[in-house]
Amino acid sequence: MKDPKSNVRYLGFQALPNGSRKLDFSFARRDRSLQVISVRASHDLFIGPGHMAIQECVGICYETLKSQIAGCSDVFPTSINLTPADVAQHRKPSKGAGRKGPSAKSGIGNS
C-alpha cells in the first residue's frame, strides 16, 4: 500500500471566532481506514512582519501535515498546531523574488 503521506486530502477549513483557522485533512491509514486530522493556524500567524497570507495557508498546512505523519507509525494525533517554524520551513518562495518592480521584466527605465 502507498505511504499514508501520499494520500493526504484537503477537506476544507473553518474560520474560528478568534481569527484563527482550522483546516481539515484526511489520509488512508495502513489498514485502509480514513484518519481525519485538523491543523490549527493561530490568528498570530496571519499578522505582523513575515505573516502568512490566507492564500498560502492550505499549502503550508498540507506540507506540515505530510512531514508530521511521515514520522508516525500507527498512532496519529487528531489535531496539530501550526507554528512559525512550520511556516518558515514550508513556505514556497514568492514568484516575484528578485524583481524590482514592473519595469524589471520589460527593461523599461533601465539604462
Task: Walk me through what this model shows.
This protein has 111 residues and is an alpha+beta fold. It has one domain (4-91). The chain is built from three helices and four strands. It has helices spanning 54-70, 84-90, 103-106, and strands at residues 9-15, 21-28, 34-41, 79-81. Strands 1-2-3-4 form a four-stranded mixed β-sheet, with helices on one face. The N and C termini lie far apart (59 Å).
Instruction: Kindly give the count of domains.
Output: 1
- Give me the secondary-structure category: alpha+beta
What is the string of SSEs from the N terminus onward?
A: EEEHEHH
For the terminal residues, how far apart are their CA atoms?
59 Å
Beta-strand residue percentage: 15-25%
| Coarse morphology | globular
* Poorly predicted residue ranges: 97-107
Q: Report the radius of gyration as a whole number of Å.
A: 18 Å
Mean pLDDT: 81
Describe the main β-sheet briefly.
Answer: 4 strands, mixed
Instruction: Give the number of DSSP strands.
Output: 4
Secondary structure tally, helices: 3
Proportion of residues in helical segments: 25-40%
| Strand order of the biggest β-sheet | 1-2-3-4
Key words describing this protein structure:
111 residues, alpha+beta, four-stranded mixed β-sheet, 4 strands, 25% helix, globular
